[in-house]
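Usage example:
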Amino acid sequence: MTAPTPLVERRKIGALTVHAIQAGGQKLDGGAMFGVVPKPLWQKRIPADERNRIQLGMRCLLIEHPSGLILIDTGAGNKEDDKFKDIYGLENEGAGGVTMLEDGLAQIGVRPEEVVIVINTHLHFDHAGGNTRSGRDGSVQISFPNATYIVKRGEYEYATNTNERTAASYFERNFTPVEAAGKIEFVSREKEIVKGIRVIPTPGHTPYHQSILIESVGERALYLGDLAPTASHLPLPWIMGYDVEPLVTLETKRRILKQAMEEDWLLIFEHDATTAWGRVEHDGKAYRLRT
Ligand SMILES: [Zn+2]
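Running the assembly step on the lines above writes:
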Protein backbone atom coordinates (compact mmCIF):
# COMPACT_ATOMS: atom_id res chain seq x y z
CA MET A 1 0.00 0.00 0.00
CA THR A 2 1.14 3.53 -0.69
CA ALA A 3 -0.08 6.85 0.63
CA PRO A 4 -3.59 7.69 -0.57
CA THR A 5 -4.12 10.07 -3.46
CA PRO A 6 -5.15 12.56 -4.80
CA LEU A 7 -3.03 15.09 -2.97
CA VAL A 8 -5.61 17.87 -3.29
CA GLU A 9 -9.38 17.89 -3.91
CA ARG A 10 -11.26 21.16 -4.25
CA ARG A 11 -14.91 22.11 -3.92
CA LYS A 12 -17.25 24.91 -2.90
CA ILE A 13 -19.12 25.14 0.38
CA GLY A 14 -21.57 27.93 -0.32
CA ALA A 15 -19.38 30.80 -1.54
CA LEU A 16 -16.22 29.44 0.10
CA THR A 17 -13.59 27.47 -1.81
CA VAL A 18 -12.08 24.65 0.24
CA HIS A 19 -9.22 22.26 -0.50
CA ALA A 20 -8.93 18.82 1.10
CA ILE A 21 -5.20 18.10 1.32
CA GLN A 22 -4.21 14.46 1.79
CA ALA A 23 -1.36 14.99 4.27
CA GLY A 24 -0.24 11.38 4.13
CA GLY A 25 -1.07 7.75 4.66
CA GLN A 26 -1.34 6.02 8.00
CA LYS A 27 -1.96 2.37 8.85
CA LEU A 28 -3.52 1.44 12.15
CA ASP A 29 -4.66 -1.83 13.63
CA GLY A 30 -8.10 -2.58 12.17
CA GLY A 31 -9.43 -3.96 15.43
CA ALA A 32 -8.39 -0.83 17.30
CA MET A 33 -9.99 1.35 14.62
CA PHE A 34 -13.39 -0.34 14.99
CA GLY A 35 -13.54 -1.05 18.72
CA VAL A 36 -16.16 -3.68 19.51
CA VAL A 37 -17.10 -4.36 15.88
CA PRO A 38 -15.98 -7.89 14.88
CA LYS A 39 -13.43 -8.26 12.09
CA PRO A 40 -15.76 -10.16 9.71
CA LEU A 41 -17.89 -7.01 9.61
CA TRP A 42 -15.22 -4.28 9.37
CA GLN A 43 -12.97 -6.08 6.89
CA LYS A 44 -15.80 -6.03 4.37
CA ARG A 45 -15.50 -2.24 4.40
CA ILE A 46 -11.74 -1.76 4.77
CA PRO A 47 -9.48 -4.80 4.20
CA ALA A 48 -6.56 -5.46 6.56
CA ASP A 49 -2.92 -5.98 5.53
CA GLU A 50 -0.73 -8.88 6.75
CA ARG A 51 -0.13 -6.98 10.02
CA ASN A 52 -3.89 -6.52 10.51
CA ARG A 53 -3.60 -2.82 9.74
CA ILE A 54 -5.98 -0.81 7.56
CA GLN A 55 -5.07 2.01 5.19
CA LEU A 56 -6.06 5.45 6.40
CA GLY A 57 -5.39 9.01 5.31
CA MET A 58 -4.69 12.23 7.23
CA ARG A 59 -6.79 14.78 5.41
CA CYS A 60 -6.43 18.45 6.31
CA LEU A 61 -8.71 21.21 5.06
CA LEU A 62 -7.65 24.59 3.70
CA ILE A 63 -10.41 27.20 3.56
CA GLU A 64 -10.14 30.31 1.40
CA HIS A 65 -11.94 32.74 3.68
CA PRO A 66 -12.35 36.51 3.15
CA SER A 67 -10.40 37.05 6.38
CA GLY A 68 -7.49 34.86 5.20
CA LEU A 69 -6.43 31.26 4.74
CA ILE A 70 -7.59 28.84 7.42
CA LEU A 71 -6.06 25.37 7.88
CA ILE A 72 -7.79 22.64 9.86
CA ASP A 73 -5.43 20.07 11.41
CA THR A 74 -1.85 19.62 10.27
CA GLY A 75 -1.14 15.89 9.79
CA ALA A 76 1.81 14.11 11.40
CA GLY A 77 4.64 16.51 10.56
CA ASN A 78 8.30 15.64 9.96
CA LYS A 79 9.68 15.13 13.46
CA GLU A 80 9.19 11.36 13.92
CA ASP A 81 11.86 8.72 13.34
CA ASP A 82 11.74 5.72 11.00
CA LYS A 83 10.78 3.21 13.71
CA PHE A 84 7.78 5.29 14.73
CA LYS A 85 6.76 5.78 11.11
CA ASP A 86 6.92 2.04 10.51
CA ILE A 87 4.76 1.20 13.54
CA TYR A 88 2.03 3.61 12.46
CA GLY A 89 2.55 3.10 8.73
CA LEU A 90 3.13 6.83 8.30
CA GLU A 91 3.85 7.84 4.72
CA ASN A 92 3.82 11.62 4.64
CA GLU A 93 7.15 12.71 3.23
CA GLY A 94 6.74 15.35 0.58
CA ALA A 95 8.16 15.05 -2.90
CA GLY A 96 9.48 18.58 -2.95
CA GLY A 97 8.61 19.97 0.43
CA VAL A 98 8.99 18.85 4.02
CA THR A 99 5.74 16.90 4.12
CA MET A 100 2.82 16.07 1.84
CA LEU A 101 0.86 18.83 3.59
CA GLU A 102 3.41 21.38 2.43
CA ASP A 103 3.44 19.84 -1.05
CA GLY A 104 -0.37 20.11 -1.10
CA LEU A 105 -0.25 23.75 -0.07
CA ALA A 106 2.37 24.41 -2.77
CA GLN A 107 0.17 22.72 -5.37
CA ILE A 108 -2.63 25.11 -4.41
CA GLY A 109 -0.16 28.00 -4.60
CA VAL A 110 -0.01 28.73 -0.88
CA ARG A 111 3.07 29.30 1.28
CA PRO A 112 2.90 28.31 4.98
CA GLU A 113 3.50 31.98 5.90
CA GLU A 114 0.18 32.88 4.26
CA VAL A 115 -1.98 30.78 6.60
CA VAL A 116 -3.55 33.10 9.20
CA ILE A 117 -5.50 30.60 11.30
CA VAL A 118 -4.78 26.96 12.18
CA ILE A 119 -7.52 25.05 14.00
CA ASN A 120 -6.71 21.78 15.81
CA THR A 121 -9.57 19.32 16.40
CA HIS A 122 -7.40 17.83 19.15
CA LEU A 123 -3.67 17.40 19.79
CA HIS A 124 -2.96 13.74 18.88
CA PHE A 125 0.23 13.38 16.82
CA ASP A 126 -1.60 12.60 13.58
CA HIS A 127 -3.63 15.82 13.83
CA ALA A 128 -1.21 18.31 15.37
CA GLY A 129 2.18 16.86 14.38
CA GLY A 130 2.49 19.36 11.56
CA ASN A 131 1.89 22.33 13.90
CA THR A 132 5.67 22.45 14.28
CA ARG A 133 8.48 21.13 12.14
CA SER A 134 12.07 20.11 12.45
CA GLY A 135 14.38 22.57 10.74
CA ARG A 136 17.63 21.64 8.97
CA ASP A 137 19.56 22.17 12.21
CA GLY A 138 17.16 19.89 14.11
CA SER A 139 15.47 22.75 15.98
CA VAL A 140 11.69 22.73 16.34
CA GLN A 141 10.07 25.60 14.44
CA ILE A 142 6.50 26.87 14.15
CA SER A 143 5.23 25.52 10.79
CA PHE A 144 2.79 28.39 10.20
CA PRO A 145 4.63 31.35 11.72
CA ASN A 146 1.99 33.99 10.96
CA ALA A 147 -1.00 31.96 12.11
CA THR A 148 -3.02 32.00 15.28
CA TYR A 149 -3.58 28.41 16.40
CA ILE A 150 -7.05 27.69 17.79
CA VAL A 151 -6.85 24.99 20.48
CA LYS A 152 -9.36 23.84 23.05
CA ARG A 153 -8.15 24.81 26.53
CA GLY A 154 -9.20 21.51 28.10
CA GLU A 155 -7.52 19.51 25.32
CA TYR A 156 -4.24 21.36 25.92
CA GLU A 157 -4.39 20.58 29.63
CA TYR A 158 -5.29 16.96 28.86
CA ALA A 159 -2.37 16.71 26.41
CA THR A 160 0.14 18.14 28.86
CA ASN A 161 -1.04 15.96 31.77
CA THR A 162 -1.02 12.48 30.26
CA ASN A 163 -1.44 9.09 31.89
CA GLU A 164 -0.34 5.58 30.90
CA ARG A 165 -3.26 5.23 28.47
CA THR A 166 -3.06 8.64 26.77
CA ALA A 167 0.68 9.36 26.65
CA ALA A 168 1.44 7.50 23.40
CA SER A 169 -0.63 9.99 21.35
CA TYR A 170 0.58 13.31 22.77
CA PHE A 171 4.04 14.72 22.08
CA GLU A 172 4.69 18.10 23.63
CA ARG A 173 6.98 19.15 20.75
CA ASN A 174 3.80 19.35 18.63
CA PHE A 175 2.14 22.05 20.74
CA THR A 176 4.15 23.46 23.67
CA PRO A 177 6.49 25.43 21.33
CA VAL A 178 3.39 27.03 19.78
CA GLU A 179 2.11 27.99 23.20
CA ALA A 180 5.54 29.25 24.28
CA ALA A 181 5.61 31.50 21.20
CA GLY A 182 2.26 33.00 22.22
CA LYS A 183 0.62 31.71 19.05
CA ILE A 184 -2.26 29.74 20.62
CA GLU A 185 -5.70 31.24 21.13
CA PHE A 186 -7.48 28.98 23.58
CA VAL A 187 -11.21 28.31 23.26
CA SER A 188 -13.37 26.62 25.84
CA ARG A 189 -16.74 26.10 24.18
CA GLU A 190 -18.58 26.57 20.89
CA LYS A 191 -17.25 29.67 19.19
CA GLU A 192 -17.43 31.39 15.82
CA ILE A 193 -13.75 31.97 14.97
CA VAL A 194 -14.44 34.07 11.88
CA LYS A 195 -17.73 34.54 10.02
CA GLY A 196 -19.18 31.11 9.19
CA ILE A 197 -16.34 29.08 10.74
CA ARG A 198 -17.36 27.70 14.10
CA VAL A 199 -15.71 25.22 16.47
CA ILE A 200 -18.20 22.96 18.22
CA PRO A 201 -17.52 20.53 21.07
CA THR A 202 -17.74 16.88 19.93
CA PRO A 203 -16.41 14.98 22.96
CA GLY A 204 -15.67 11.28 23.22
CA HIS A 205 -12.53 10.52 21.21
CA THR A 206 -10.93 12.85 23.74
CA PRO A 207 -12.93 14.73 26.38
CA TYR A 208 -12.35 18.11 24.68
CA HIS A 209 -12.36 17.06 21.03
CA GLN A 210 -13.88 19.66 18.70
CA SER A 211 -15.22 19.61 15.14
CA ILE A 212 -15.46 22.53 12.75
CA LEU A 213 -18.76 23.69 11.28
CA ILE A 214 -18.44 25.67 8.04
CA GLU A 215 -21.41 27.70 6.87
CA SER A 216 -21.78 29.84 3.78
CA VAL A 217 -24.83 30.99 1.84
CA GLY A 218 -27.05 28.42 3.51
CA GLU A 219 -24.76 25.43 2.93
CA ARG A 220 -23.25 23.70 5.94
CA ALA A 221 -20.31 21.31 6.21
CA LEU A 222 -18.75 19.62 9.21
CA TYR A 223 -15.09 18.67 9.47
CA LEU A 224 -15.57 15.72 11.81
CA GLY A 225 -12.02 15.12 13.03
CA ASP A 226 -12.06 11.84 14.93
CA LEU A 227 -15.79 11.89 15.74
CA ALA A 228 -16.20 9.62 12.70
CA PRO A 229 -12.72 9.23 11.19
CA THR A 230 -13.87 7.45 8.01
CA ALA A 231 -17.16 7.02 6.17
CA SER A 232 -17.15 3.44 7.54
CA HIS A 233 -17.54 4.89 11.03
CA LEU A 234 -21.00 6.37 10.36
CA PRO A 235 -22.99 3.55 12.05
CA LEU A 236 -23.43 4.66 15.67
CA PRO A 237 -21.62 1.74 17.41
CA TRP A 238 -18.68 1.75 14.98
CA ILE A 239 -16.45 3.62 17.40
CA MET A 240 -12.67 3.49 17.66
CA GLY A 241 -11.03 1.53 20.45
CA TYR A 242 -8.73 4.54 20.79
CA ASP A 243 -11.57 6.72 22.10
CA VAL A 244 -11.13 7.49 25.79
CA GLU A 245 -14.88 7.96 26.35
CA PRO A 246 -16.62 5.72 23.79
CA LEU A 247 -20.09 6.07 25.29
CA VAL A 248 -19.72 9.85 25.09
CA THR A 249 -18.70 9.44 21.43
CA LEU A 250 -21.90 7.42 20.93
CA GLU A 251 -24.13 10.22 22.26
CA THR A 252 -22.20 12.92 20.36
CA LYS A 253 -22.58 10.92 17.12
CA ARG A 254 -26.29 10.36 17.79
CA ARG A 255 -26.87 14.10 18.19
CA ILE A 256 -24.59 15.34 15.40
CA LEU A 257 -25.52 12.80 12.70
CA LYS A 258 -29.24 13.38 13.30
CA GLN A 259 -28.78 17.11 12.74
CA ALA A 260 -26.40 16.50 9.82
CA MET A 261 -29.02 14.35 8.07
CA GLU A 262 -31.96 16.65 8.84
CA GLU A 263 -30.08 19.73 7.65
CA ASP A 264 -28.23 17.98 4.80
CA TRP A 265 -24.70 18.89 5.98
CA LEU A 266 -21.69 17.86 3.97
CA LEU A 267 -19.47 15.66 6.18
CA ILE A 268 -15.68 15.83 5.75
CA PHE A 269 -13.70 12.71 6.71
CA GLU A 270 -10.16 13.20 8.01
CA HIS A 271 -8.85 9.63 8.01
CA ASP A 272 -10.75 8.07 5.11
CA ALA A 273 -8.19 6.93 2.53
CA THR A 274 -10.52 7.41 -0.42
CA THR A 275 -13.61 9.46 0.49
CA ALA A 276 -13.04 13.12 1.34
CA TRP A 277 -16.67 14.06 1.86
CA GLY A 278 -20.29 13.11 1.46
CA ARG A 279 -23.77 13.44 2.88
CA VAL A 280 -25.38 11.05 5.33
CA GLU A 281 -28.59 9.04 5.17
CA HIS A 282 -30.23 6.44 7.40
CA ASP A 283 -31.30 3.16 5.83
CA GLY A 284 -33.61 2.20 8.70
CA LYS A 285 -30.84 0.35 10.53
CA ALA A 286 -27.80 2.58 10.42
CA TYR A 287 -26.32 5.79 9.09
CA ARG A 288 -24.40 5.48 5.86
CA LEU A 289 -23.01 7.64 3.11
CA ARG A 290 -25.61 8.73 0.60
CA THR A 291 -24.60 7.67 -2.87
ZN1 LIG B 1 -6.86 10.75 14.35
